[in-house]
């Protein structure tokens, strides 16, 4: 049993998860860093930092496996006696047009980004309820409130997570368990390098999704340009998460990058038709630029 607050972070071996673990350790929390077994070796690159803060665990956790979830929470309850903050950060991202998305891709996307974090929340709640409170922080995305072509599966998983989180926000208030959805936009993290292309997209011009090839190129260019322009880092998101943890009355939603804040503002205050036309106009303009460059390169 320990007196300091305990935080559990999924997907903590890199990016936002690791940056969050570091700032929580620096602020005096006891942190459980988790990742899939195959990703645990990534912690070795930060071993010197972790040695400075002995108040931590590193544990394998496949968030999609019920036994993994129950075993870890049981260990936390037995050996630490408390869990104050759960940060559901682990996730995956598929890119494919919905018409040609395979059912297994859709199920995989929803399993990791929606079902697994909600199931982990359910396993943690009895402990949080007994100790008199806690804080659930679900890492979403700007894709949690709007979507673009070829990102439908990912956006659907984040929309689902946000809808469930909103229900939990109200359901858990009687037990002083707070719920916050963190919505980062583009962040300079390696997560985009691990985007999973749908099988129909991977086959390119030989596959059935060739009709969507232009849209796929447009979104690739959009992501590439946004990553070049953004100044937001995992550390920025981690600092925002720490700020939310400290709040006595944290908000349900927290947009933590400039692009997420701008699009969130436009989505909230513009008429829906105007907002959708604005997004379509921007995508059409980017598509035209790409086609113009391609034409110039042939001449």
- Report strand %: 5-15%
N-C termini distance: 72 Å
What is the overall silhouette? globular
Spatial order of strands in the largest sheet: 3-2-1-4-6-7-9
CATH superfamily: NAD(P)-binding Rossmann-like Domain
CATH class: Alpha Beta
What's the story with the biggest beta sheet?
7 strands, parallel
CATH architecture designation: 3-Layer(aba) Sandwich
What does this structure look like?
Helix 1 links the parallel strand 1 (6-9) and strand 2. Helices cover 52% and strands 13% of the residues. The model has no long low-confidence stretch (mean pLDDT 92). It has helices at 15-26, 47-52, 66-79, 103-131, 152-171, 199-202, 213-229, 234-246, 258-269, 272-298; strands at 6-9, 30-35, 56-60, 85-88, 94-95, 134-139, 177-183, 196-197, 253-255. The protein is α/β, with parallel strands linked by helices and 299 residues long. The protein is globular. It has one domain (6-212, 231-257): Rossmann fold (3-Layer(aba) Sandwich). The longest helix has 29 residues, at 103-131. The strands form two sheets. It has a seven-stranded parallel β-sheet, with helices on both faces.
Key phrases:
299 residues, alpha/beta, Rossmann fold, two-stranded parallel sheet, 10 helices, 13% strand, globular
Topology diagram in text:
Elements lengths: L5 E4 L5 H12 L3 E6 L11 H6 L3 E5 L5 H14 L5 E4 L5 E2 L7 H29 L2 E6 L12 H20 L5 E7 L12 E2 L1 H4 L10 H17 L4 H13 L6 E3 L2 H12 L2 H27 L1
Parallel strand pairs: 1-2, 1-4, 2-3, 4-6, 5-8, 6-7, 7-9
Helix pairs in contact: 1-8, 3-4, 4-5, 7-10
